[in-house]
Each structure stands twice: as C-alpha cells, then as structure tokens.
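W.,

You were right to be curious about this one. When I first looked at the sequence I had no strong expectations either way, so I just let the prediction run and decided to look at it fresh. Below is the sequence, 475 residues in total, followed by the output.
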Amino acid sequence: MMISHLRKRIMFLKRFVFLSPTITLLGVFGILVLVAMLVMGGTILRQVEANRAAIGFNFSTANRPFSQLEHEVMQLLVYVTSKPDPFDAEQFQQDFGVLESRWAVVFWPSVQAVFPQDIKNNIEEMIPLWESIQDLSARWVINPQNEAVRSEFAETLNSFGLLIFQTDVRYQSARGLILDRINESSQGLLLTLSIVSLSLVGYVMLGAFSIYRFIQDQKLAERKTRAALSAEAAALETSNFKDQFLGVMSHELRTPLNAIIGFLGIMGMSGKLDERSTHMMQRSRANADRLLLLINDILDLSKIEAGRLELVPNKVFLRDLVQRWQYQMEVLAKQKDLLFSVIIDPQLPQSIFIDEEAVTKIAINLLSNAFKFTDSGEVSLNLRCQDHQWLIEVRDSGIGIPTHLYDNIFESFRQVDNSSKRARGGTGLGLSIVQHLVKAMNGTVRVESELGAGSTFTVALPIIAVSESQLQAPN
C-alpha cells in the first residue's frame, strides 16, 4: 500500500520536474520572457503600478522580507513540492521532517489555512500535489477546503492571485519575499494574506502558496506596546514639566521667604518690641522657618527622584559639624522641655571627607522627627565608630512605631498614622529623603522601636578619614 502511494506521488511530482522536456522548454521560455521584460523595463513598471492600483494593494507599506527562519521554511516548502527525478523516498521523508519542525516553530498555531495555486490561479489543480505532503503532519493547519476562510477572502484571493508574479520580474525570482495584505473578516478577526512564489530551479513558475494567519494577538500586543510607549513619553513630558515648575518655585518661593526671615531677625535684634510684638515676631519666624523647611524638603525630594542629586565630599571637622546640629536642636528641646544629649566617640577621626549638606539633612531630619514625636523624656544623638563605619544614632522616648510599619515610614508622604500626621504636622518627607541620601552615600539606615517606649534610628556611613597633611591643605 505504501509503495503504491509513493508511486502515485512520484508520478504526480514528475509532472513538475524541470528535467522533463516540457518543463525544460518552459524554463528556457521563462528566461527569455524575463530578459524581454527587463528590456521593456519602463512599460512593465507602469503596468505593475496599474496592476497594484487595480487590486488595491499598498506595496509601499505591505512588502516585507522574510525573517531568516521564515525564509528557510519557504525554501524547504518550495523544494519539497518540486522534487526532481530521481525520487529518493527516504530523503523525501527527511526533508519533510525538517520542514514540519520548522513550520511548527514559525507558523504554528497562527496559520488558519494554506491554499496552493497554480500559475493560472487555480486552487484545485494544485490540491493533489499538496495532498501528497499534507498527511505527513496532522499538526499543520493546512486546509485547502476551508470554505469559511476561503469565502471570506475569495475576492482578494481571485483578484490578487499571481498577478504580481506574472507582471513583475522582481517577484518571479524572489523566493525570499513575502507579500502581506491585512484583512478583517466578517467576525472581526484580523488575518494576513501572504503570497509565496512556488518555482523550480531556473525560475519556472509552478504557482504560489496563499497563507492566512491570525494576527489579532500580534496587533493587540502592538497596541499595548504603542500605549506603553505613549504613556512613557507622557510621563517623561510630565516629569520635565514638573522639574521646570519646581525650578521656578525654588526661586519664586525661597527668595521672598528668605527675605521675610531676614527682616524678622532684624526686628528681633532691634530691642524695640514690646512683649506682645516680640511673641508675634517669634511665632512668625518659627512658621517662616517651618515653611522654608517644607519647601526645601519638596525640592530636595524632587531633585533626588529626577536623578539630579550631586554629592560633593569635602573636608569636614566632625566636632564642629555636630556642634552646629546641637545648637539648632537645642531650640526645640527648650520649647518642649526635653533633655537633649550629644555623645561623640573619641575613636572617630577629627576630620572626614563627606558631603556636609547631605549628612546635615540626614541628621536634622532624624532629630526633628525625634523631637516632633516625643512629648516627654529625652532625645539623644550618639556618634560612634564601628567596622570602618561611623554611626549616627538618634534615640528618643516618644510614641514609638509598630513593627509592621517599619518599611512604610520611609515612603514619601507617609507617617505612622493619619491621626499622628494631623496632630503633629509635617508632610512625611523627612525619612524618605534620609533613605535616599543614605543610599546615595553608600550607607544604610535601620530602625528599632517599641510602641509607647520610643525609637532608635541608626545611619551607618563609610569613614573616609583626613590625613594630617590633608588637614593643612584647603578643600
């Protein structure tokens, strides 16, 4: 039975073998036609453009080259359907095995149907040839009798046909070119029709394959990609606009506010204010300082998130730096009647290389939070040396933090809870800025707390000590 089946295949394939006299004559004739068409170049191109317009096919956007894998599959497809004598059944099976595996990779499962056509645009005439290989793989979605798909695109298939291959020499020999046309079926499904030439050696045209593939998933993915790119562009534009706005606000808000703070300071030093006026001046100064701190926090966070944070390490005398922190925080300690202590480990170097502004923001934010959330008891600042790092440890006896909120408190605009936020003020930016600055300085920050018993924040930063010779040199 198998031998009989192969014999039928061989007999059919011989009809298309280029070694037969008929096919040889056709091949010679085809080459002569190609030469003639090349000579007639201008006329042919005008005819091609007319043909394109007649079938409504947009070649400027629809032509695309095969991918390498698609090209190999189509070459195999053409090869195995135009096998010359002598027919080698074993080699024939091997070729189809390769074709089957590659077809499955490239086209499965998007192919809806494959229609083979002969040179006269007859589908039925090519069916016997196709059936000779179709049974080799039931997994191939190849169905020349698929009337549902065929009827959907009958007009396109009949009008398009092999018109291009018959009139345009570029496509008669172009096995590596696939011509796509996207159509929408009555069910609203997007399919692409691809025409692939089927030719023998010598460019003798046998026909072509019309391949229909579903592409709605591909189009959906493309739409999602375009939407994502559009959203990214919009986000970038918004970010740039925000940066420009904040840059303007940096000048328009801070400049007059600094002037207000300066004039309030002059008024306080004049000594000509009565008790009531002095109290009003002090309240105004405190609120102006608070507003300036808020503006600075917002601008700092914006700069950090935009990736424009620049650290400039300089030689800093550690004890002088800590003393400035202490003076600034003693005002808060007196206002809330809290104990405030500062301890500096004698093993710490006298001077270090550090970005003074950044480390000051870290310390002041931690200390300000400690005073804000402590109503009685004490706040302490402890600086010590450990494992080639210097630690900034801020301890308080305040309200404490629940364990499950340890990570949340480092997020922007987050505090322990909303009621705390309303009662004690603030924006929740301080700890977020601390975390960003510490990471930028290759350090770490951690928190230990007990609800109702206080909290301890510890920042660890690498020590870059200043040598004796560097102490004498300018920054």
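Here's what jumped out at me. The chain is about 55% helix and 20% strand. And, maybe more interesting for your project: Residues 448 and 456 are 5 Å apart (CA to CA).

Coffee later to discuss?

I.
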